[in-house]
Write a structure and sequence with these properties.
The complex is a heterotrimer of chains A (382), B (317) and C (343). Chain A is α/β, with parallel strands linked by helices and 382 residues long. In chain A, 34% of the residues lie in helices and 19% in strands. In chain A, strand 5 (195-198) and strand 6 form a beta hairpin. Chain A is globular. The chains are: A alpha/beta (382), B mainly beta (317), C alpha/beta (343).
């Protein structure tokens, strides 16, 4: 694990379909300046910058760390740009933390962003090379078959997805940064929306958002204000093409969780954690990840959701921020999970604060559910 | 409108005649000092307001504070160059006297530095571009005379540029995929067997993704198989015949990895996990080196496969 | 800082034409080579560098994962940058102390598109990219700035001649002829031979820490300093003839602390060599780009990693005691990474 590392500042932009009022630099600066302000610092106090985002095709700006370097106060400093598909927000935080854990830098600014309204997310995700053996389908079309298989294996009743969709959007109403705001959202409303890729309905799908999220990470001797200490950090990847690959509960997800729990001394995540911010872009991924992350045994994840355990007032709130289902700037979504986990244990999550939260999980995944990045943060030093 | 026939007709219609009142050359309106100052500044390409005794900046300037009737001060203040739309309406069919001859918005515009709104036209192009809070600037007429129309209209501030980006590539499929597609051209589905883990990967590839060993053995895989899972897509796609369409993971007989393909020849809501399917090929003379040689996979009619039996055999993980 | 060394390096026989291999197929033999030379099947951490836009599709690095046999699941990350920065990330990870080995790789097929035009997409999207400034054009601006600051075209010609000759002697680089004396300009002051060739290729490096490095390699190339820095982006807002970030990175990596026997510099345009020699403080006696450098083979996204590998190789063979590997990214040497290695 290396040296101790803490989150001392978090900054977010209001997530929405189109940020027409800012340039790309303006968008990232908004989050970066808020994070610095939260940390009581300026750009001058930062030793290194790490940015992460999804494919450059979204904005048509290739390798944007070159253009954004000075916008993020990085002139004269090192800057890196991470790209690990959908988990990128998480890996960006981990790469930033790694610089501190490795004793290389003392204060690192990490930023994740996407200004995907400059093109169109569906278009960008379905561009494909001319030669292929398989049909290439967009994100929803890719994950829907695995959700179907989960439902078959677990025998889950069909309404579980809608329960997650409602819960996360109700939570979003308590998050001033969240994109989707649907006051009065009900299960009936969700189930009345069109089926996009059966069994995923329109309101069970993540939005396409513009936005940025930033964190300031610090080494122990440079911590100021209210820190969230990193208790565990891990990433795992697995090959998508393996024969017999379990696409419902990927091994890489299980291994990543096991590593991060071991580092943080967590034996039973449901009992030992107070809150989790988990990458759930389609409603059914909540019960699936409840099992993959060991909060429930195989086949039982949907029961936790149905019983309200993951609601804001449940015993293990999941996605009190509203999650990816409420805000989804793809390059930042993973970082937002990590940042929200930090806000929870710092007691700074405002209206969506889980009372007394001391340990939280931040989770991100990407690709064909093959890249996983997770961390555990706590209010006490590890 | 009355027709000539009405006017002239002997059938007894009402008598109608065209009549105009127009002062030749137009009225001469003297402006007084305050309006004169505003229009003089406008002719020079500037917008000014005047400060009231209470401190408010009136745009356009009046000689009096509209709230009290008191005279305004002699202090003129340049405002703008931009302003914010506070209210607007959209004209679909402009009249001849309107500032523009194409659809446009009337707007109340709060110039920067002003405390009242200016009324003018906004050439926004499309009603969707209008909203309260829109930032606009004057489009100045080239020849100005000291008239409110010296500003031809307002136009939205630049908020975006359009960047057409196109990168062009000459791509090749690579050795593995190239070999696989050659097979497909001949109506054959080629997999590759890994000598170490003994799994058959489809499509054919030169290395094993699990252990990295070199794959030498080509294995011909059947064009029949089992649907392990699928999605019913309701969003149209150019590659599928119609909506809804089914995209399925198909484990072909003899292969250990799945292909994703279309399922056709059966209503979408009748597709099942475990269903047996076979490829429907294009006739040989229509085939190319592409997966589109297989139109889709259709049910064979055989009994469904029990997917859990297969899964246990593979050991789950 | 924990001592970390390069213990293996492999690269493809770089090609100026598309040989019909996909990126993972290009990478496969290189990964096998470093696995064989170290005897390692798995590594504590894996990191790669590549570019989606070069490949022509988003998430292009994902298929590379299938080429390295990521099973059981591995701890792995990726940067959308030259593999040299993937090496940096891996070096940082090894500092934590819980793992001892890392696999690093970079790859790219530049033959698939026009890479000079592609680089326009990396520029400021409001003020520079819409002008259609291609890489050769903006490199030419830097060449002009350098010449006006006291540079000499003869130096550029000599860099080309020397690099191509070294490339001919390097079995992995291209065989390019001596530059003709009568070349007309491409974009003044640059001529065609001043520009690195379009090349496909891949490379891999294995890093190991402490005693593990000694077990895996007879003479590990110990990284005694590694650092990178970036300059402001806009071309009119920095001194093109003197990239401060290159000097800062060299200083932070401790390049000046001793003699440098060999320096492999990421020179994509001939004028970049004298600029970098000065900025990095390369002494006159140093052998520069004995591999021929990018002017002899420029597989984008691997070229920087190869500079580090080539420098390391000479330390591992005993030919050099202290070597420097440099990588660059961004327009006109905006971002610079320096590694110093010792035997």
């Amino acid at each position: 694990m290396g040296d101790r590392c803490a989150v001392i500042g978090v900054g977010q932009t209001r997530y929405m379909s189109k940020r027409r009022d800012v340039s790309i630099a303006g968008l990232v600066r908004e989050a970066a300046l808020r994070a610095l302000e939260d940390a009581g610092l300026t750009f001058a106090d930062v030793d290194a910058v790490v940015i992460g985002k999804a494919p450059d095709l979204f904005e048509g700006v290739m390798m944007p760390e070159a253009y954004l370097a000075d916008a993020l106060g990085a002139a004269g400093k090192p800057i890196m740009r991470v790209h690990t598909a959908g988990s990128v927000g998480g890996s960006t935080a981990l790469v930033g933390a790694s610089l501190i854990q490795g004793g290389v830098h003392e204060r690192v600014l990490v930023v994740g962003f996407e200004k995907q309204s400059e093109s169109n997310a569906t278009w960008a995700l379905t561009t494909h090379l001319p030669f292929s053996s398989s049909l290439v389908v967009g994100a929803g079309g890719y994950f829907a078959p695995h959700i179907r298989e989960y439902i078959r294996r677990s025998g889950a009743p069909p309404h579980i997805g809608a329960l997650v969709a409602v819960k996360d959007r109700l939570n979003a109403l308590k998050n001033p940064y969240a994109h989707l705001r649907i006051p009065g959202i009900t299960r009936e409303l969700v189930e009345s929306t069109p089926m996009l890729w059966e069994p995923i309905r329109y309101l069970e799908t993540c939005p396409s958002s513009d936005g940025a999220c930033a964190m300031v990470l610090a080494a122990e001797h440079k911590v100021t204000g209210t820190p969230a200490w990193v208790h565990g950090a891990a990433m795992r990847s697995e090959t998508m093409m393996r024969a017999g690959r379990d696409t419902v509960s990927p091994q890489a997800g299980k291994d990543c969780a096991a590593d991060v729990y071991r580092q943080a001394g967590i034996a039973d995540p449901r009992r030992d954690l107070d809150v989790a911010e988990v990458y759930v872009p389609f409603s059914w991924y909540e019960p699936m990840w409840l099992e993959n992350l060991g909060f429930a045994t195989e086949g039982e994840g949907w029961k936790l959701t149905e019983a309200g355990c993951t609601a804001l007032d449940g015993d293990i709130p999941w996605n009190p921020s509203g999650g990816v289902l409420s805000s989804n700037p793809i390059g930042a979504s993973g970082l937002i999970r990590f940042a929200e986990a930090a806000l929870q244990v710092r007691g700074l999550a405002g209206e969506h604060q889980v009372p007394g939260a001391r340990r939280a999980l931040g989770h991100a995944y990407g690709g064909g559910a093959q890249f996983f990045a997770m961390w555990i943060v706590g209010s006490e030093k590890p | 409108m009355p027709s000539e026939q009405d006017a002239a007709g002997p059938s007894g219609g009402p008598l109608v005649a065209e009549h105009t009142l127009e002062f030749p050359g137009g009225y001469t309106r003297t402006t007084g000092p305050v309006i004169g100052r505003f229009l003089t500044e406008l002719r020079d390409g500037r917008v000014v307001g005047v400060r009231t005794a209470a401190g408010r900046v009136l745009v356009p300037p009046l000689e009096y504070d509209p709230d009290t009737g008191e005279p305004v001060t002699g202090e003129y203040v340049e405002v703008g160059p931009a302003g914010t739309v506070t209210t607007w309406s959209w004209v679909h069919a402009p009249r001849p006297g309107h500032p523009l001859d194409r659809p446009f918005a009337w707007a109340l515009i709060r110039m920067d530095g002003a405390d009242t709104d200016l009324v003018h036209a906004v050439d926004a192009g499309n009603v969707k571009a209008m909203r309260p809070g829109l930032r606009v600037r004057p489009r100045w007429r080239a020849e100005r005379t000291g008239h409110i129309t010296d500003i031809a209209c307002f136009v939205p501030e630049v908020t975006k540029i359009v960047a057409p980006i196109r990168t062009a590539y000459r791509l090749r499929p690579g050795r593995s995929l190239g070999r696989f597609l050659e097979g497909v051209r001949d109506g054959i589905l080629l997999g590759g067997r890994c000598p170490d883990c003994d799994k058959v990967y489809l499509p054919y590839r030169i290395s094993c993704p699990a252990c990295g060993a070199a794959v030498d053995e080509e294995v011909r895989v059947a064009d029949t198989g089992t649907v392990t899972t699928f999605a019913i897509n309701n969003l149209p796609d150019p590659r599928a015949p119609q909506v809804p369409f089914v995209s399925a993971y198909i484990l072909l007989d003899g292969a250990d990895t799945e292909l994703i393909g279309l399922v056709g020849g059966v209503p979408a809501d009748r597709v099942r996990q475990g269903m047996r399917v076979r490829a429907v090929w294009l006739p040989p003379e229509e085939r190319t080196t592409a997966m589109t040689n297989i139109r889709w996979f259709e049910p064979t009619g055989e009994p469904d496969v029990d997917l859990d039996a297969g899964r246990d055999a593979q050991g789950g993980a | 800082m924990r001592e970390v060394a390069v213990v293996a390096f492999a690269q493809t026989r770089h090609s100026a034409v598309d040989e019909g291999l996909s990126e993972p197929e290009l990478l496969l033999p290189v990964i096998r080579a470093v696995r064989e030379s170290t005897g390692l099947r798995s590594f504590g951490f894996t990191c790669s560098g590549s570019c989606d836009y070069l490949a022509g599709a988003p998430f292009s690095f994902v298929s590379a994962l299938d080429a390295i046999g990521a099973w059981p699941p591995i701890s792995e990350s990726h940067v959308e940058m030259d593999g040299a920065w993937a090496l940096y990330e891996a070096w940082v990870r090894l500092q934590h102390g819980d793992i001892d080995t890392a696999l690093v790789y970079g790859f790219g097929k530049s033959t698939q598109t026009d890479p000079y035009e592609l680089m326009t997409l990396q520029l400021d999207p409001y003020y520079l990219a819409p002008l259609g400034l291609d890489e050769i054009s903006y490199a030419a601006l830097q060449a002009r700035a350098w010449l006006d600051a006291g540079g000499d075209e003869k130096t550029m010609r000599e860099v080309v001649r020397r690099s191509r000759a070294a490339g001919r002697a390097n079995p992995d680089a291209l065989d390019l002829p001596d530059p003709p004396g009568d070349e007309s300009h491409l974009v003044e002051p640059l001529r065609p031979s001043d520009v690195a060739p379009v090349t496909d290729g891949a490379a891999a490096v294995v890093l190991a820490a402490g005693d593990r490095a000694r077990e895996l390699c007879e003479r590990p190339a110990w990284i005694t300093g590694i650092a990178h820095r970036i300059d402001p982006h806009y071309l009119g807002m920095r001194n093109l003839a003197r990239p401060a970030s290159a000097a800062d990175a060299a200083r932070a990596a401790g390049a000046g602390k001793g003699a440098i026997d060999v320096a492999e510099l990421h020179v994509r345009y001939s004028h970049e060599e004298p600029i970098l020699r000065e900025a990095l403080g390369i002494p006159d006696g140093t052998v520069v780009n004995p591999s021929g450098g990018p002017l002899a083979a420029n597989p984008i996204m691997a070229a920087g990693l190869i500079r580090i590998g080539e420098a390391a190789r000479r330390v591992m063979s005993g030919a050099a005691v202290r070597a420097l590997g440099h990588a660059t990214s961004g327009p006109c040497l905006q971002h610079n990474l320096v590694t110093v290695m010792e035997g």
